[in-house]
Write a structure and sequence with these properties.
The strands form two sheets. Strands 4-3-5-6-7-9 form a six-stranded mixed beta sheet, with helices on both faces. Strands 1-2-8 form a three-stranded parallel beta sheet, with helices on one face. Helix 1 packs across helix 2, helix 1 runs antiparallel to helix 9 and helix 3 crosses helix 4. The two termini are 35 Å apart. Helix 2 links the parallel strand 3 and strand 4. It is α/β, with parallel strands linked by helices and 240 residues long.
Length: 240
């Protein structure tokens, strides 16, 4: 009890009591997913080489649970914000540790006209990138900049990972420590952090800058600011 604790990407049950020394961080993955959904919709409706004329993009989740559906809800809303006619195919692997299943599901989606798939499946989602390489289609990573996982070991595979929806653990923990030092960190509570706090976002790496036209990049920045300003309210799977 004389120590202070910061828990991130999870929360504790404060109803148990005696947790006034614990601060928890949750991430608004729905807001970051809105942005990558918008990226997917902009690209799938474009005439850019590698994208087909069909307005279909994909999402693969590890499990049919609220936190994964929060990614899905934001992704779909972001895509429909760009074009209400964009269809999002959704598959669940039933596991977070089965890359072979992830590849199988991604191949099936690509065969159904999808040209870009969002990984909402942790390790299972690594199989999506194998499928993207095989089919020469595109993918969106999750949590960290997954392009960086392969840009040196398998540049061809990496080239198909356009961007990633990132949980910015670095920014959120820096913010927490800064608030702690200022005596302002709300211990005994959980906070949900999003775009406004820099706690989620998209990876603007060299591949993103190469593939996504500048006009689309500007559009994404405008959308991000609208979410921060409250002009766009992103739906959530929690409480539903």
């Amino acid at each position: 009890p004389e120590k202070r604790f910061i828990a991130y990407d999870t929360t504790v049950d404060y109803s148990k009591g005696n947790l006034e020394n614990v601060y928890s961080i949750l991430y608004m993955q729905n807001e970051g997913s809105f942005l990558v959904g918008a990226v997917g919709a902009l690209l799938t409706t474009s005439s850019i080489e590698g994208f087909n004329p069909e307005k279909v993009i994909g999402f693969i989740g590890g499990m049919d649970i609220p936190v994964i559906n929060d990614f899905k809800v934001g992704y779909i809303q972001g895509a429909e914000y760009i074009d209400p006619e964009v269809e999002v195919l959704v598959s669940y692997a039933g596991s977070f540790g089965d890359p072979a299943k992830g590849k199988e599901l991604a191949l099936a989606q690509y065969d159904q006209g999808v040209d870009i798939v969002f990984n909402g499946a942790a390790e299972t989602g690594l199989g999506i990138f194998d499928a993207a390489k095989e089919k020469k289609k595109y993918a969106i990573g999750v949590d960290s900049d997954q392009y960086l996982l392969f840009n040196e070991s398998d540049p061809e595979k990496a080239s198909y990972i356009i961007t990633s929806m990132m949980k910015r653990l670095d920014n959120s923990l820096f913010r927490a420590i800064q608030l702690h030092l200022e005596g302002k960190l709300p211990y005994g509570e959980v906070e949900s952090l999003g775009l406004k706090e820099g706690a989620v976002g998209i990876a603007e790496n060299e591949n993103y800058l190469k593939i996504v036209p500048e006009e689309f990049q500007k559009r994404i920045k405008e959308i991000e600011q609208k979410i921060i300003d409250g002009e766009i309210v992103v739906e959530t799977a929690f409480g539903k």
